[in-house]
From TrEMBL:
Record protein name field: Mannosyltransferase
EC number: 2.4.1.-
Bilayer-crossing regions: 52-75, 87-109, 129-151, 163-186, 222-240, 247-267, 279-298, 310-331
InterPro entries: GPI_mannosylTrfase
Source organism of the structure: Cucumis melo
PANTHER family xrefs: ALPHA-1,2-MANNOSYLTRANSFERASE ALG9 (PTHR22760:SF2), GLYCOSYLTRANSFERASE (PTHR22760)
């Protein structure tokens, strides 16, 4: 029995939806028996805008490769090939690094800068290390200054004059460039970097509107994205009494931001996974260092060539633990791709929709936070509008050049992140298309009204709230398909009468 998970065309989608709830628990076979839904639609078949989206992602991945290569080479020269090899394997395959490396976010840019700055520091190039740190803070994310602090301070201690001049000149040049860009777009002298810091430090927007989490959120998130690797990274300080000569001070300086950043970010009420991106490469380095030191726990400190039974067992454990980390990471990545790729896949269908309605409006309700990018919106769609599903935070508005372009401060924006009445489309009859996630819930969704809407495309979406935590977090063949519960992520079109 084959369950369609991508359905296009009104008749196929209707049948798919009817069969969905009765068959999904019995199997999760995809159309064409392909285990990867993201491979159903190939890049060459996409519109030019979507190609640009993925081209940007590829370029970001290339930047990540370059910066992490410097870090791995530095580790190899400073601490040996084994530590560098373990780190390389984790950087390539852990789920956290896999997704963070191609995200177009300030925190991802800071992550690139952390890798490059740490590598340059280990290569004993303090001046370039400080210059890269300054670029990561100014061009990336100003709050990541805490992550760069240990490397910057120790570089200044080593070669104060060179490091200070490199950091100062880089900062002045980038801030001046930033001021000019800000002036060009805002038509007045201002600093977006300084404004960001002042706004958040002095209690600006009410970020709790976008959700709050408890103090253990990042610990749980770290384990989900790095599994045992994250636990080992946190244990790095515990191995210092044994490996002090090997890792202190250089590697300790590089890895210490993990603890600083986790402590600082855990104190903030509003938490997001992306906030941890800057320390992702350091987690891989710290865990690799712990694994590399396994034999040192049992080796006679006065006999570096000790090959007792326990030392041999510890050496054998190193590749086994690394293999466990990589397998679990692979399972996590598979789960995320197969369970949550529906928004990307459904929005792709817009470029191939047969019945094009010019000047269309696509409406999004509670799924606003999964809207992938305007690159997925073809030219025949006039605008994307939000509809009120109870969210009380401020959302983006369609750009209105008549108000003064980028230099304007439209009245519907506010500095507290509170929802504006104007951000929602009040006339729902103006919606040509509707994007909606339909789950097994006691209340009816808008798209369930078949007299008004018919589905154009549908894709399964993992329902995390009622799926078992272990099975939804890691892809285990057969169990992942049968233990988890899935909804349908749908693109619907209004029925014209």
């Amino acid at each position: 029995m084959v369950l369609p998970t991508l359905c296009s065309g009104a008749t196929q989608v209707h049948e798919c939806h009817v069969q969905h709830h009765s068959r999904l628990r019995r199997g999760f076979q995809l159309l064409g028996a392909s285990p990867f839904p993201s491979l159903q639609i190939w890049l060459p078949n996409l519109g030019i805008q979507v190609r640009v989206f993925f081209a940007v992602r590829l370029f970001l991945g290339f930047l990540s490769v370059v910066t992490e290569t410097v870090l791995v080479v530095a580790l190899s020269r400073k601490f040996g090939k084994r530590l560098a090899t373990y780190t390389l394997a984790m950087l390539c395959l852990t789920s956290g690094c896999f997704f963070a490396s191609t995200s177009f976010l300030p925190s991802s840019f800071s992550m690139y800068a952390v890798s490059l700055s740490s590598g340059l520091f280990l290569l004993e190039k303090p001046a370039p290390a400080v210059a890269v740190a300054a670029a990561g803070v100014i061009l990336g994310w100003p709050f990541s200054i805490l992550v760069f602090l240990p490397v910057t301070l120790y570089s200044l201690r080593r070669k104060f004059k060179e490091a200070f001049l490199a950091g100062a000149l880089t900062s002045i040049a980038l801030l001046a460039f930033s001021l000019l860009v800000d002036y060009y777009y805002y038509k007045r002298w201002t600093s977006s970097v300084l404004n960001l810091l002042i706004y958040n430090v002095l209690g600006g927007g009410e970020s709790h509107l976008y959700g709050t989490e408890g103090p253990l959120f990042y610990l749980r998130n770290g384990f989900n994205n790095f599994n045992v690797c994250f636990v080992l990274a946190l244990l790095f300080v515990g191995i210092l009494p044994i490996s002090r000569k090997k890792y202190v001070p250089d590697l300790l300086v590089v890895i210490s931001p993990i603890y600083i950043w986790l402590a600082f970010m855990s104190l903030q009420p509003h938490k997001e996974e992306r906030f941890l991106y800057p320390i992702y490469p350091l987690i891989c380095v710290a865990a690799s260092a712990v694994i590399e030191c396994f034999p040192d726990f049992f080796r006679d400190r006065y006999n570096p060539y000790d090959n007792s039974v326990l030392v041999v067992i510890a050496k054998v454990l190193r590749p086994l633990v690394l293999g466990l980390i990589l397998c679990a990471s692979h399972a996590r990545t598979f789960s995320l791709i197969n369970g949550y790729s529906a928004p990307l896949e459904v929005y792709k269908v817009l470029a191939h929709h047969d019945e094009i309605v010019t000047d269309s409006t696509i409406c999004v309700g509670s799924e606003w936070h999964r809207f992938p990018s305007s690159f997925f919106i073809p030219d025949y769609i006039k605008e994307v509008r939000w509809i009120d599903d109870g969210f009380r935070g401020l959302l983006p508005f369609p750009f209105n050049s008549t108000l003064g372009g980028t230099a304007a401060a439209p009245p519907y924006f506010n500095n507290k992140n509170k929802a504006s009445d104007e951000q929602y489309l009040q006339d729902l009859d103006a919606c040509t298309y509707l994007v909606e996630l339909q789950l097994e819930r006691p209340y009816a969704s808008r798209g369930s009204d078949t007299s008004k809407w018919e589905a154009v495309a549908a894709w399964p979406y993992l329902d995390r709230e009622i799926s078992p935590p272990f099975y939804r977090s890691f892809f285990i063949p057969y169990f992942w398909q049968n233990k988890n519960v899935f909804g349908m992520y749908k693109l619907l079109t209004r029925i014209t009468k």
